[in-house]
Write a structure and sequence with these properties.
about 180 residues; mainly alpha
């Protein structure tokens, strides 16, 4: 089993830029969700007038974007486990805590609860106190430092050309 993990991490390091690019791309989509959350839900609650009200296909798109959070969490977890392996343990722990706080939001305090609580729609389904909606929003925004850190890692890796060996090998095989 140890050999399998060693092979996986060797592959991960050879393809580091690709792996971090995928993680960063998935997490960048979450910024779209956070923009919706801020502009529709938070602004709507604080001012009574949301910046926009997504309906139909746009509501479906924002829902699909929100569900990319799950693969994003898994892919970024690998980034920080790799960092842990390289000795940057405290930074990795902090980022993993911020990142995995999202599970609380995803499975317990959902966006539906937040919207229902703040808009007054479907109030019969909301049994939790309104302040819990603000906690859910706070948890959702805890991913922002992780997004920024992941983008910094990607930028640094690209400057250093770190982890391009696997991509170069694949391109050489195609020629």
């Amino acid at each position: 089993m140890k050999d399998i993990f060693q092979k996986f991490w060797a592959w991960y390091e050879r393809n580091y830029i690709l792996n971090v690019s995928i993680a960063a791309g998935l997490f960048l989509l979450q910024l779209v969700h956070l923009f919706w959350l801020g502009g529709d839900v938070i602004v709507g609650r604080l001012t009574g007038v949301p910046w926009f009200d997504l309906q139909g296909v746009w509501q479906l798109i924002i829902t699909l974007v929100d569900y990319t959070e799950i693969p994003a969490i898994f892919s970024i977890t690998l980034v920080y486990i790799n960092e842990w392996r390289q000795g940057r343990r405290w930074h990795a722990i902090l980022m993993l805590l911020l990142l995995h706080s999202q599970w609380l939001h995803i499975f317990w305090i959902t966006d539906e609860l937040v919207v229902d609580t703040f808009t007054g729609e479907h109030m019969h389904t909301t049994v939790l106190p309104a302040w819990l909606a603000w906690v859910a929003i706070f948890i959702d925004y805890l991913e922002v430092p992780v997004v920024i850190d992941t983008l910094l890692k990607l930028s640094r890796a690209m400057r250093e050309k770190k982890g391009l060996q696997g991509i170069k090998e694949a391109l050489d095989e195609d020629e």
